[in-house]
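Possible regression after last week's pipeline update?

I re-ran a chain I had predicted before the update to compare outputs. Posting the input and the new output here so someone can diff against the archived version. Not blocking, just want to make sure nothing changed silently.
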Amino acid sequence: MNKTSITHARLAVAVLAACCVLPVQADTSGVRVSAGLNNNYQRYELAWIAPSLWTHRFSENWGRLDLVGELGVAYWQADGSRSPSSVWQLNAIPMLRWTLQERYYLEAGSGPTLFSRTKLADKTLSTALQFGSHIGAGVMLSKTSSLGVRLSHFSNANIKKPNPGLQVIQVQYTYRY
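New output (post-update):
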């Protein structure tokens, strides 16, 4: 990552740290907007988060673990004269989200995504079918909103060569209803 990417990542972590105040509780369903970047491209996503498909509540203030589904559409934009300069992506990702003290969360998930073309920013992805792997963390700002940071990797799981993959760090805002 370049200095700008590192600065954005540090800013996102600082915003999350600054938001850590009173505990709140929220449902798991909602809508999320994300903006992410890497050295050569940006990713913008709008996603629907399904109500929890499964929940486990831990004893003694260890929080709860939810399995949620995310359906999203994303637009990728390459920097400069890299070709092709844009691509669309659809995804369906099951996510495990561990909520602590009804205030903080950690998340991880992996699932299929479909790209509108197999080239972006001078990279050849080989297949339109890619798999997204995600890890993230966040904080509840209120009963209906949260702010998070997520690291995502997309690749074709070596179905076909080449398989350069795409990585992006994202800041995300979720509104829960």
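Follow-up from reviewer: compared with the archived run. Confidence is low (pLDDT under 50) at residues 11-26. Marking as no regression found.
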